[in-house]
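Deliverable D2.4 — example input (structure tokens):
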């Protein structure tokens, strides 16, 4: 599987794509009975469909990906109801002891500095790299404690579905996600924006890379739209 590595242990993997830019044109041309007539002519039609929100032809293509991300990223991701998901289950298998550890650089970026999202900021105190490192040491210790309580529970015979209670939202999980192209682009509009949390933005950018590879003509229209707001 083609994988794009993200954070300190996550990835977006390409499973498969269906349809193509050409199939989108073919679907739109069902109205007149003509098919794809070549990009020289049909580039204009694709742009017309896209810019005028004739959306259903863009539902004739799509992509399935595999994602390994921290649980808190999945919480944001799963709000997107038009994707289909299957995720590994901590009820049935113990979750591997892998947790997201942000880099010092990431911590120093702050929250959504490109926007005025005050809610997401800290308490106003200026964070130093030294304090960031102290805090990182603390969370690594707390992950170790949580893992020890988790493993003790499993060893004692506590059901896995309850033994997982101390597992942090930083724990990596895995899922497959499928959506049609229209809905992938809606996801990317929201999750590549600077208002989105940095972590999910890394994943959204990787999804965008795969969309660009598989649907280059539609991707060019999406990029143009994003650039012009
Ligand atoms: C920067 C950011 C901050 C956020 N902050 C919060 C927060 O603080 N709290 C919080 O709870 N959520 C938050 N969210 C999540 C947000 O409210 C949406 O749930 C999420 O972005 C999914 O968007 P969506 O509903 O458009 O996507 P999807 O569920 O994929 O839906 C796609 C489109 O389908 C249509 N649709 C789907 N279901 C329905 C329906 N039931 N009724 C009508 N139309 C429907 C809509 O047109 C929708 O735009 C945040 C999202 C972002 C990007």
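Example output (designed residues):
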């Amino acid at each position: 599987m083609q994988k794009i590595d993200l954070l300190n242990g996550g990835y977006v993997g390409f499973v498969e794509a269906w349809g193509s830019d050409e199939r989108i044109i073919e679907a739109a041309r069902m109205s007149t009975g003509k098919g794809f007539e070549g990009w020289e002519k049909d580039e204009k039609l694709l742009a017309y469909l896209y810019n005028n929100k004739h959306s259903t032809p863009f539902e004739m293509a799509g992509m399935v990906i595999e994602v390994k991300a921290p649980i808190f990223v999945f919480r944001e991701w799963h709000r997107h109801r038009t994707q289909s998901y299957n995720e590994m289950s901590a009820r049935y298998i113990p979750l591997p002891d892998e947790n997201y550890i942000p880099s010092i650089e990431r911590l120093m970026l702050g929250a959504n500095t490109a926007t005025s999202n005050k809610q997401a900021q800290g308490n106003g105190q200026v964070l130093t790299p030294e304090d960031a490192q102290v805090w990182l040491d603390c969370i690594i210790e707390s992950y170790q404690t949580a893992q020890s309580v988790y493993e003790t529970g499993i060893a004692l015979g506590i059901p896995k579905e309850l033994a997982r209670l101390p597992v942090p939202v930083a724990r990596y999980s895995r899922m497959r996600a499928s959506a049609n192209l229209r809905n992938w682009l809606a996801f990317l509009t929201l999750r590549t924006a600077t208002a989105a949390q940095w972590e999910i933005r890394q994943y959204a950018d990787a999804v965008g890379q795969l969309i660009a590879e598989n649907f280059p003509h539609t991707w060019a229209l999406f990029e143009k739209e994003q650039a012009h707001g």
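The chain has one domain: 2-20+61-228.
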